[in-house]
Every structure is written in structure tokens, then in C-alpha cells.
Amino acid sequence: MAADHTVHGVPSLSAKVVGSFAYLTVKDRLPTILTKVIDTIHRNKNKFFEEFGEEGIQAEKAAISLLSKLRNELQTDKPVLPLTDDLEDVDSWNQYLQRQQRLEGDQELVSWFKSPWLYVECYMYRRIQEALRLNPPISDFDVFNEGKTQSFFESQQAMIVLCTYLEGMRKNIKELSKSQLSEHFNKLLQVALWGNKCDLSISAGQDNSQKVSPIDSLVSLKPFILVDHSSMVWSTLISTQNSGRTGSVRVDIVLDNAGFELVTDLVLADFLVSSGLAHEIHFHGKSFPWFVSDVTAKDFQWTIRQMMAANHMWMSRSGVQWQNYVKEGVWSYHDHPFWTQPHEFCDMAADAPDLYATLQAADLVLFKGDLNYRKLTGDRDWKYTVGFHTALRGFRPAPLCSLRTLKANVQVGLQPGQGENLSSQEVDWMTSGKYAIIQFNSSLAEQ
Ligand SMILES: O=P(O)(O)OC[C@@]1(O)O[C@H](CO)[C@@H](O)[C@@H]1O
Ligand SMILES: [Mn+2]
């Protein structure tokens, strides 16, 4: 039987296409990230010594040696190796490697430059975790922590603007009309969308004096939203209210990055709860450090604590409110090994049925960020006009919406000619983070 990486003749993005964005990422970006990780571990040598003595130093050396070997395997296109640590997901990863090998056929071994980009990129982050797990004293060290905390502190000004907006609204939220609520909803949905922009500086001001408000900048960013299904997201929320259901409305947010983006997500979640549009928010994060800036449980708790401790009245008031939501169970944080695996989401029902069942209990699921979009669409070379519903290939646990700035060259659901027009004007429109989508799919059949 012919086995390959195509679905309906649509191939997976892969570094085997020389010059493609996937190729450049594997060739340049991933080794750079590994070098930074090695440097970070080395710079923390003294800390490891203070905490664990000589054992800490040995662990630092051993982890660095494993990571240098990993970088060499990547750069010389060596075969992808099975994992050897003790995490609960090892079997699943190793089975996935076999699955990839079957797709590859007998001719070639699965390797960095030949296999699907999504797979090898996820695998790199899992191997970083392996290098730490195999060296127990430093297993819990988060190699990306410094960057995440720095991005939080650098965007304080924009956070203050958001929390001030939130507090202003909270005061008379019960008196707002449906249309006023919908206006606030659209704004905060867009703030959470642009929070995914890679540079984190949504408020254009670079200096630390006058900052442009992340709310005010929404108008000028609007033309860069290529697909805007926000009215369908709103209708979904409203219809759950109008349906006369007695149960509480639950919104799940599949988080992406820590720092400013996480705060925009928490502000949106706060609005949903305090307006009564939702009664319960489930946040889904990663169980270990992932794709440099993704949220882990520690980041989630740290962020709320930092907000509470902030030296600004509305920021700390928001932090206290969020801590209460967590205490009362109105907000809950969840992680599942599936989020740090390479599977496309259409595999979830079969490969992580418990997680799929969890999402089925939501009234709406918001997927933040670029990587989640790649997994929603299988990271394939789809034609721009293919429907989102088609690209999801049966993944529809609940009504869902992707909030994503474009940082990888996969995009579906555009109007005829829209993608071609953009390509003729800006070669990097799919990877610069300048454009964005709010793309919705109902849980029903084809819309
Ligand atoms: O998911 P996010 O945080 O929005 O983006 C993740 C990302 O930076 O990593 C990949 C490239 O290495 C791309 O998918 C994307 O640009
Ligand atoms: Mn991310």
C-alpha cells in the first residue's frame, strides 16, 4: 500500500521542501533555540550548585552534553530516536515515531529534514525535556522561564490599560445592554487575538512613557484580520443563554503564550464571567515548557500572583479577582499530555478520548495561537479557499474558534483570490505575525 504524508493529495509541511518556511525553521531557528537553551542551563550552573551541590554540576554538564548531541543530530539530519526517559507519554511518542516510519515507507528513516515539520518541531521540545528528566536534580528547571517573566514585565503598561478598562466596565456591567456587551466582547476578543502577535508589544509605543492603548490600537489593526467570525462566536454564547438551559455555560480556552498574551486571555475570561455570558472557564495549558513561551501550570499561578502583587490598584484588583475565581472553581487550569504531543487534533478522539470528551462538555472552545492552528488544520499545504470545516477533518468536539496571528504558512477559509493578492504584495504575509484570523466552526455538520 502506498504510504505517505498526504491527505486527499495535500502534503504535510516539511523541511524537505528546500527554501520553505519549514526548511528555514529547522535549519536556522531550531538550532538557535537549542543554543540558547544550552546557554541558559550553563548560566544557571551556580544556582544548581547552591541547590544540589556537586550533583547539580554533574547534572548541568550531562544535560548540556545531551542537548549538544541533539543539536548535532538535527543539523546533520540524523534519524529521529525513540525517547528513553520516564514520563508518562514516552510510549505514545515512540508509537508515533513508528507511525511516522510506516508513512515514510521502508526506503528512508524518519529524520529532521525529511519528516513533517510539525512532528520534528514538537519532538525537539520533548527531547529538551528528556535531557532534563534524565538528570533528576534539575528535572524541573524551566529553560524558558527567564524569557517568559521578562515578557511579562516588559508589557506592564499595556496590562495596566487593560485592567483599568476591565475595572471601568465591571462597575456597571449588570446595567449594560446586549449591544454594549457585544461591543466589549468584540474588543476583548480582538485584544486576546493580537496578544498572540510575536513581539508582544501590542501597544505600539517602544519607550516607557506614553503608551498607545491596546484597546485604541484595535481600530488600526482591524484591516489585518483576514477572517472575522466574531459574530458567530457571539451568537454561540448568546444562544446558550437563550436556549433556556439550566446548566452553567462553560468556555474552554486552550492557552498559548505566557506574558502579555496570557493576561489578555485572563481579561477576556474575566469579562465572560463577570458579564454572566459564561459561568465556568477551563484553561488548558502545557505540562512542561514548550515552544519557548507557552503557558505551564507554574506560569499560570505565577502570573496571577504577580498581578495581585502589582503596584497598581487596578492590576492588583484584577489579580485578586482572578485568584478568587480559581479558589471558587469558577476558573480551573488543566493540562493533558496530548497538548505536548505532535498529533494533529483530528487524532484527538482516537488518541486522547478523555481529553476529547472533556472538550465536548464545553459550550465553546477558543484555541489560541499559531501552533494550535497548525494542529487544527494538520499543518498541511491546503489551498487557501479550502473550508476550515474540511481542514479540521472531523475534529469538532464543540463549537470552536481559532484566535491566531499568522506565523506559519498554513491558512484555510479565505475568499477566492484573497491569498493570491496578499502573496503578490507581501511575500511573508503568512509568517510575519502582521495578519490574523478569528475563525469559527460550529460543532454541526458543514456550514
Ligand atoms: O503558537 P504560537 O506561539 O503563536 O507560535 C509558535 C511559533 O512561533 O512556532 C512555530 C515556528 O517555530 C510557528 O508555528 C509559530 O510561529
Ligand atoms: Mn506558543
Automatic annotation (TrEMBL):
Q: Which cofactor does it need?
A: Mn(2+); Ni(2+)
Catalytically driven reaction(s): beta-D-fructose 6-phosphate = dihydroxyacetone + D-glyceraldehyde 3-phosphate; L-glutamyl-[protein] + S-adenosyl-L-methionine = [protein]-L-glutamate 5-O-methyl ester + S-adenosyl-L-homocysteine; beta-D-fructose 1-phosphate + H2O = D-fructose + phosphate
Q: What range(s) does the Damage-control phosphatase ARMT1-like metal-binding domain occupy?
A: 25-422
Q: Name one Pfam family in it.
A: ARMT1-like_dom
SUPFAM superfamilies, alphabetically? AF1104-like (SSF111321)
Q: Describe its function.
A: Metal-dependent phosphatase that shows phosphatase activity against several substrates, including fructose-1-phosphate and fructose-6-phosphate. Its preference for fructose-1-phosphate, a strong glycating agent that causes DNA damage rather than a canonical yeast metabolite, suggests a damage-control function in hexose phosphate metabolism. Has also been shown to have O-methyltransferase activity that methylates glutamate residues of target proteins to form gamma-glutamyl methyl ester residues. Possibly methylates PCNA, suggesting it is involved in the DNA damage response.
Name assigned to this protein: Sugar phosphate phosphatase
**Which organism was this protein described from?**
Sphaeramia orbicularis (orbiculate cardinalfish)
